[in-house]
Amino acid sequence: MIFLNIKKRLRIMFFIILSIFIILIIRIGWIQLIKGDFYKILALEQQNLDREISAKRGIIYDRNGEILAMSATSRMITINPNNIPEEKKEMVAKKISEVLELDYDKVIKKVNRNSSIEIIAKKVEKEKSQRLREWLLDNNIEEGINIDEDTKRYYPYGKLASQVIGFCGSDNQGLNGLEAKYDEILKGKSGSISKITDGKGMNLENTEEKYTGAIEGDSLELTIDKNIQAIAEKYLEEACIDNKCTDGGNVIIMNPQNGDILAMATYPNYNLNEPFKINNEELEGIWDNLSNEEKNNYLQSMWRNKAISDTYEPGSTFKLVTASASLEEGITQTDNVGEFSCNGGIEVSGVRIKCWRYYRPHGAQSLRDALMNSCNPVFIGLGQKLGIHTYYQYLKKFGFLEKTGIDLPGEASSIFLAEEKVGPVELATISFGQRFEVTPIQMVTMLSTIANKGKYVKPRLVKSIIDSETNEKKEIEPEFKNQVISEESAQKVLDMMESVVSEGTGKNAKVEGYRIGGKTGTSEDGVNTGKYVTSFIGVATIDHPEMVVLITLYNPTGEGGHQGGGVAAPVAGKIFSEVLPYLEISKEIEEKTNEVVVPDLIGMTIIDARKMLKEKNLDIEIDEEINQEAIITKQIPEKDINVKEGTSIVVHTN
User: Would you say residue 265 lies in a domain?
Assistant: First the structure.
């Protein structure tokens, strides 16, 4: 019996051992055959320690080859905590935090972790990394601390075109503007330093590091001209400060022949080298007391490119669309004398819509007169003749019912009522530019289309991509679309715009010697807000348009008021006066200098002669020591001679 029990027990044990063995075989088979590749990858990851080498981002150039953004070489500090001797960890943490100006408590935590690699700091200046390297050598610390290549994005011109260029994060990823839009092209391919370790991340003897170099990103050549951008930013800032524009402003300058954006300025701007530093002194004082959400909202507002991301009511500048459509449809002509009449307002479906000068009506006008006077009733009447469907067809052709597709992130859509919801009153307000919203980039594209002989041209910011390895340029061709209006109609609109600047509401944009066209605009910023948007859109030159300019100022509250002609047009005049000569565009009109007749000064005192000459826009040239009461006995030129204004008359006394 005892023998049988032992035999039975042995048989049970055999089956148990056999079962365990079979299970182990199955488990090994599962690990080796089914999950083998998976565990092989895990082992390789555990035994291969990789340190990334950041690739240099491609350079961003302006249209003339000036560098606007580049990557400078810096260093990244990482540690292998398991390879730092225990007795040296505290000393290492103290030195690293001292040299790199880091918080010691945070550094010592990383040094004491049981991990194979920890990132201590990125974008470290060469001088700091060299000090750390020398300390390591002096203290015979050969392992556990790595000083590898890194790159730091640098913007040579600081604030220039900040909302256009954008910036990068700590990982070299583009976060805003062109840096974000073209991130895949600019970022390049990271390299690495690899070595084999044991399972705990400790170094193995007789192993070497494997170095794989980073590949630099491709570069961009922009349509932006650094000098034109600087001019635009200078006068925009001046206008926003002088006119106390509480919500800032923007300027866009575009070449209508190819869609090139020569400048796109937003105020206030910010320093690209310090993108997380707020640009508002008042906010800077309370910054540390704000919540993270408040900080983020303010930063997002600072980075926002209002030229493409914000919408506004264009006001009277939109009358160019109504005029273009009306000429193209043959509803009117530019100079039919007395064709229209303004009596201060117009009745539309029981609603009286006033002209801005309702208190002194414009009376009989031609289309040219109406544009020069910016007369609302005339354009309401033209809108009625066009009709809702036809008007919306032109909105579509001019690109107002879709985004322009400019190569920047964050472009907003316009805000129009759906065509089927538009009634007579809504059509009336659209006809003179109110109760809908568009973006500044859509407006400048509209005028560029007119200036480009009526053919739609898409705005662009990048003209070529430069391969980092071959240095070959891949040109990005200008993109043209539909013929919106005929060349004849386009030229008529430009001709009328010239009259607006030479004789109408846009006189302050005039530049002597150049044929410039434009249109002023003033609109409410929302309903019953008490805020206004003032703008001016212009083109030069009329015969051969090479630049279109849009100035948009948000809520000017200064003594100069909020009318486009008085606030925005002067900004355009200053920009034209500098950019046109810079582009080497010759003056088309000889500067007119009036001639005057030299008066008879003989027998007069110096004081009386000076007064008389001043009235005739002439100067006087005398010896400073002469008594102002002395009597004039001789003058050159003599009396009754014709001279140009500003001429100096030389006089002699007794």
Answer: no
CATH label of the domain that carries residue 320: 3.40.710.10
CB of 46 within 8 A of CB of 204? no
- Give alpha helix (H) positions in 306-350: 306-309, 319-328
Last residue of a domain, one of 526, 561, 582: 582
Judge whether 317 lies within some domain.
Answer: yes
| Chosen domain end from 537, 560, 582 | 582
Q: Is the peptide bond before 637 cis (omega within 30 degrees of 0)?
A: yes
Q: Specify the pLDDT at position 206.
A: 54
Whether residues 202 and 347 fall in one domain: no
**In-domain check, residue 254:** no
Question: What tens digit of pLDDT does each residue of 435-494 get?
Answer: 999 999 999 999 999 999 999 999 999 999 999 889 999 999 999 999 999 999 999 999
pLDDT confidence of residue 623: 60
Do 80 and 206 lie in one domain? The reply is yes
pLDDT in tens, 613-651: 888 888 887 765 567 788 888 877 788 877 777 777 877
Beta strand pairing call for 455-457 and 480-483 = antiparallel
The set of catalytic residues is: 316
**What are the C-alpha distances in Å from 262 to residues 268, 539, 579?**
19, 14, 10
**Residue 296: which of 323, 276, 312, 319 has the closest Cα?**
276
How many helices (H) and strands (E) would you count in the chain? 22, 26
Sign of CA dihedral 63, 516, 309, 529: positive
Average pLDDT, the chain: 88
- What is the C-alpha to C-alpha distance for residues 201 and 117, in angstroms, rounded to an integer? 8
Contacting residues for 243 by C-beta, under 8 A, at least 6 apart:
553, 556, 557, 558, 560, 567
Largest CA distance in the chain: 161
22, HSE (Cβ side, Cα atoms, 13 Å): 6
Strand stretches in 255-349, DSSP E: 261-267, 340-342, 345-348
Distance (Å, whole) CA 532 – CA 245: 10
> Regarding predicted confidence, which is higher, 4 or 240?
240
The two structure tokens encoding residue 370 = 């109406």
Q: Which residue matches tokens 């010697």?
A: 513
Condensed to tens digits (0 to 9), the pLDDT of residues 283-306 reads: 988 998 999 999 999 999 999 999
- Residue 268 in 3-state DSSP? coil
Q: What integer is the mean pLDDT of 177-186? A: 96
pLDDT at 1: 53
| CA distances to 20, 81, 141 from 112, in Å | 42, 6, 16
**In which domain, by residue range, is 168 found?**
49-222
Q: Which string of DSSP letters, residue by residue, matches 446-465? A: HHHHHHTTTEEE--BSEEEE
